[in-house]
Structure formats: C-alpha cells, structure tokens
C-alpha cells in the first residue's frame, strides 16, 4: 500500500477515534446541577429544620459557596459556613428561628468551578424545637453543636484528566502511524 492511500485512511481513523473519545467526554464536561433540596421547594414542615441541604450531581466546592435562610422580613437565619460532604451542601440554621415562610437563596461553586445560583422556599408551621438548643435571634452568636462527621470534600473534577488522556492517546496514535508508514515505505524501496 502506498503512502498516498495510507494517509487518507489514517486520517479517517484518527477522526473516528477523536469523535468517540470526545463523545464519551461530553458527560464529564457537562455542568453540575441541583438534584434535590431538603426541605423541598414549596414544602410545609412541622418545625424549623436544624439544617438546609442542597444535593448536587457532583461534589460542590466549599470555597465561594453561600446559603442564606431568609424569613419573610429578610432576616438571615443561617449560621456558620456551608459544609460539604460528598454531593451535599449543608447550611445550619440558627436555633430559635420562628415559624413562617422562608426563602433559601444559595450560591454553590460546581466541581468545574462554575458558580450556580438559585432559590427555593418552604414554610415552617412551628418555631425551632427545644432540641435545637437555646433560643437565639439573628446577630446573637451561638456555637453550633460539634458535628460527628468530619468535613470531607472530594475533587470530582475529572474533565482535565479526560483531556490529558485524550491528548496522550492521540499522540500515541500519531506516533504509531508514523512508524508504520516509515516501515511500509522502507519495504517498498
């Protein structure tokens, strides 16, 4: 087989392989999304929850993430920072939060470093229960109970490794094609 027949076939093979590799990488490169909240949007709960949870399709970053738990007057009842464990961002609520309508405004940083923002609402029919600790209002410093589970953040950003792998595979194919072409040309001479 001559070189002028080998080059078009090799080009077609490389293009097919590239399409297969990029086609499988698109899911890894897709942006993260919210898969659920607790309480859910529009829910009515019997008492104010101790924490708000936002579940994501991948593990969000802790840095840059913020969750506000706002009552009808605009008072933020969130206390402490956002905790992340696996794919769930958790925001603790100050003890003593009254019954009423709440809007949760959140900003999370996805695994691919893109900020995601949104909001949802729920209604608490009763104030926080006594089991949530001493009653405290906004502006009053209340130390949250120590958590029994340490904060674990996993880096699930696989996109750069997929690209590096793609480049390595493509370079290997090109090197193999050059070696094969040189061998065939040497045989023809």
Low-confidence stretches: 132-158
On the 0-100 scale, what is the average pLDDT? 77
Overall structural class, as computed from helix and strand content, comes to alpha+beta
The largest beta-sheet arranges its strands as 1-3-6-5
The helix content is 25-40%
Give Rg in angstroms.
27 Å
Number of strands: 8
Helices, by number, come to 2
The largest sheet is: 4 strands, antiparallel
Strand content: 25-35%
The ordered H/E elements are HEEEEEEEEH
N-to-C CA distance:
12 Å
Please tell me what the overall shape is. rod-shaped
Folded structure, characterized:
With 189 residues, the protein is an alpha+beta fold. 30% of the residues lie in helices and 31% in strands. The protein is built from 2 helices and 8 strands; from the N terminus they run H-E-E-E-E-E-E-E-E-H. It has a 4-stranded antiparallel β-sheet with strand order 1-3-6-5, with no helix packed on it. Strands 2-8-7-4 form a 4-stranded mixed β-sheet, with no helix packed on it. Helix 1 runs antiparallel to helix 2. The radius of gyration is 27 Å and the shape is rod-shaped. The two termini are 12 Å apart.
């Amino acid at each position: 087989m001559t070189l002028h027949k080998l080059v078009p076939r090799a080009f077609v093979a490389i293009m097919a392989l590239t399409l297969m590799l990029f086609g499988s990488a698109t899911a890894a490169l897709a942006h993260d999304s919210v898969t659920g909240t607790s309480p859910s949007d529009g829910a009515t709960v019997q008492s104010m929850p101790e924490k708000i949870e936002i579940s994501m399709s991948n593990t969000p970053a802790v840095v840059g993430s913020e969750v506000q738990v706002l009552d009808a007057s605009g008072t933020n009842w969130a206390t402490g920072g956002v905790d992340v464990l696996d794919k769930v961002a958790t925001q603790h609520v100050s003890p003593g939060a009254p019954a009423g309508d709440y809007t949760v405004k959140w900003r999370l940083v996805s695994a691919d470093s893109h900020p995601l923002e949104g909001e949802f609402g729920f209604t608490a029919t009763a104030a926080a229960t006594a089991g949530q600790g001493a009653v405290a209002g906004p502006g009053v410093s209340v130390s949250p109970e120590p958590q029994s589970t340490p904060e674990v953040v996993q880096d699930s950003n696989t996109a750069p490794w997929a690209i590096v792998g793609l480049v390595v595979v493509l370079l290997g194919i090109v090197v193999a094609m050059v070696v094969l072409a040189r061998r065939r040309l040497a045989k023809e001479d």
